[in-house]
Design a protein that fits this description.
CATH class of the largest domain: Alpha Beta
Helix content: 10-25%
Radius of gyration: 21 Å
Order of helices and strands: EHHEEEEEHEEEHEHEEEEHEEEHEH
Largest sheet: 10 strands, mixed
Strand content: 25-35%
Length: about 280
């Protein structure tokens, strides 16, 4: 069955529909050797190129039900497909796909642990990451430095960073004392190192940072660092609705939820995450 070009490419993870429409208008996309036009529909037999490079959209055109999983990122992994220096990446532990590709929903820097979502649905990923969606990200933060009411007020009202004004929408004291004090903070955007930079703007250093929630999805306490699991049907529905999208049909065969990933190294990450003073993920 033929579908609109921008919808197929967005679902395959090449960009949002709006981005792809702008590429079509700019002449960057061709179909069967001819410049694509807005409104063009494509089928599995068509050859699609972006900037004269062939792209694969077989999975999107076949209407395969998208896959989405949650991954517990440990400290030390990069959110990139490959690193020139050979450092470990979050993609190293994900299941291999034959015709689709995993798309990371946002990023976590190397020194940040916690929840990462991956999907084969590019439209879902783009919607969740777009600032207009205002999907909440919740982090557990351990800080070094004295935090008083004035600092918390500044962080909630907003401070000027080098890439614009930013603020937490919520700050909750999660306990601890001295160098082991924790807070839970919520943002509705995903700028680079934003949580750390907000605290640092007030002279407070972040010594540990864990993302514990993305939209309606919480980091399961049983999911060890370096492991992943597929989202349940209920979680998939909630995530698509948070993105303003219609959930895909349920898979015809139900499979049990299993935790997958590496062993050994992941166990060390788990021990670290159970260190004294860390607050519960559950709110």
């Amino acid at each position: 069955m033929a579908e609109r070009l921008q919808k197929v490419l967005a679902r395959a993870g090449y960009g949002s529909r709006r981005q792809i429409e702008s590429w079509i208008s700019a002449g960057r996309i061709s179909v069967n050797g001819k410049p694509a036009e807005l409104g063009l529909t494509v089928s599995p037999a068509d050859e699609i190129r972006i900037d004269d490079k062939p792209v694969s959209v077989a999975t999107s055109l076949a209407r395969v039900i998208p896959r989405t999983l949650i991954y517990h990122k440990p400290v030390g992994e990069l959110t990139t497909r490959a690193d020139p220096e050979g450092r470990p990446t979050v993609f190293d532990n994900l299941p291999r796909l034959k015709t689709a590709r995993w798309i990371a929903v946002g990023r976590l820097d190397m020194n940040t642990a916690g929840l990462l979502l991956f999907t084969t649905d590019g439209e879902l990923a783009n919607r969740l990451m777009h600032p207009s969606s205002e999907v909440e990200r919740e982090y557990a933060v351990r800080v070094l430095g004295k935090v008083d009411a004035t600092i918390l007020e500044h962080l909630l009202k907003g401070v000027d960073l080098d890439d614009g004004r930013a603020a937490f929408t919520s700050i909750r004291d999660a306990g601890g004392s001295g160098a082991n004090h924790w807070y839970h903070v919520i943002l509705k955007e995903g700028r680079n190192r934003e949580v750390r930079r907000l605290w640092e703007s007030q002279g407070v250093q972040v010594s540990r940072l864990i993302r514990v929630r993305f939209g309606p999805i919480e980091l399961p306490r049983a999911l060890r660092a370096g492991r992943h699991r597929a989202l349940t049907r209920q979680e998939v529905v909630a995530l698509y609705r948070a993105a303003g999208l219609t959930p895909p049909p349920a898979a015809t065969r139900r499979t049990p939820v299993r935790h997958h990933g590496r062993t050994g190294k992941a166990g060390k990450g788990t021990a670290t995450q159970r260190s004294r003073g860390r607050p519960s993920h559950r709110r």
